[in-house]
Amino acid sequence: HTAELQSRFDARIDAQGKIEPQDWMPEAYRKTLVRQISQHAHSEIVGMLPEGNWISRAPSLKRKAILLAKVQDEGGHGLYLYSAAETLGTSRDQMLDALHSGKAKYSSIFNYPTLTWADVGVIGWLVDGAAIMNQVPICRCSYGPYARAMIRICKEESFHQRQGFESLMTLMKGTPAQREMVQDAVNRWWWPVLAMFGPPDADSPNSAQGMRWGIKRISNDELRQKFVDATVPQAQILGVTLPDPELQWNEERQQHAFGAIDWDDFWAVVNGNGPCNKERLATRVKAHEDGRWVREAALAHARKQRSRAMK
Ligand code: 3HC
């Protein structure tokens, strides 16, 4: 009987169909989706911290309002994605325990410090730019709830990227010190953003199966290349140089060649030894502990409501 279910599942995947929560699915398909969607949600929630650090220091009310809206969006993306993961049978508590215990991953890119105001613009321009590259193909993911969550999230992500680029344009029209602040931020973020797309395809244990199941539509290296090719002209408009002496256009390949990424640094960050990993996780654990009373009150209220309804 399982063989029949498996072949029906395979046929649906091969026909680019959607798998819905109530459909039969191989346990390994369910497991890898819980892994990816929960870690994607963790990335959104932890991602609020680096830029949230600048909400109280934004240089104007306009910039503060924009940044507030962006950080709030990231929080919403996280809750959206936790809900998508819950349709696969995992619970919010299980996912948060995995994050807080260091068992679950979240995007490496959020383990770097935001040292100046220009970092906020560079995060919008480069990090959200990379996130869009990575998230648009997931709108075509075979798992329905994840694909649908991505459509809404990608719309908001475009605003994030545009506001970042616009704020950098303003700084680049400012004083030499402001221009230098932007260039310094680009120098610090460029390589970690390229690594954020994930390890090279040859070192990516989940990619082959992810592609077979229609979860991953474009490979890590291909998305990374697309991002470099799209970002080089933007850097020229901005007037910043990208910190890679080997970056150059290759006419016959119609794409940019670029230098080697430091994968040892990437894996050190992924394995918890980046500049801010401990601080980011401690901040999340503290927020969760401090919020315990709210969860308990909400549950007590819900129990009271239920018992009233039963009378
Ligand atoms: N940071 C941390 N871990 C990473 C990583 C990164 N940048 N890139 C890869 N890894 C991990 C993978 O999770 C996997 O570990 P696991 O098996 O324990 O989960 C391991 O490294 C090997 O990588 P693979 O390429 O084999 O793994 P995947 O096939 O899952 O590809 C991925 C990795 C491209 C990140 C994929 O999981 C994915 O597309 N995830 C959804 C998108 C996502 O999470 N994006 C995070 C960006 S942040 C963001 O979107 C917020 C925005 O608002 C800025």
UniProtKB/TrEMBL annotation:
Molecular function terms from GO: phenylacetyl-CoA 1,2-epoxidase activity
Annotated Pfam families: PaaA_PaaC (PF05138)
Biological process per Gene Ontology, one example term: phenylacetate catabolic process
A GO term from the CC aspect: cytosol
Listed SUPFAM superfamilies: Ferritin-like
Signal peptide bounds: none
Name of the protein in question: Candidate Phenylacetic acid degradation protein
Organism expressing this protein natively: Ramlibacter tataouinensis (strain ATCC BAA-407 / DSM 14655 / LMG 21543 / TTB310)
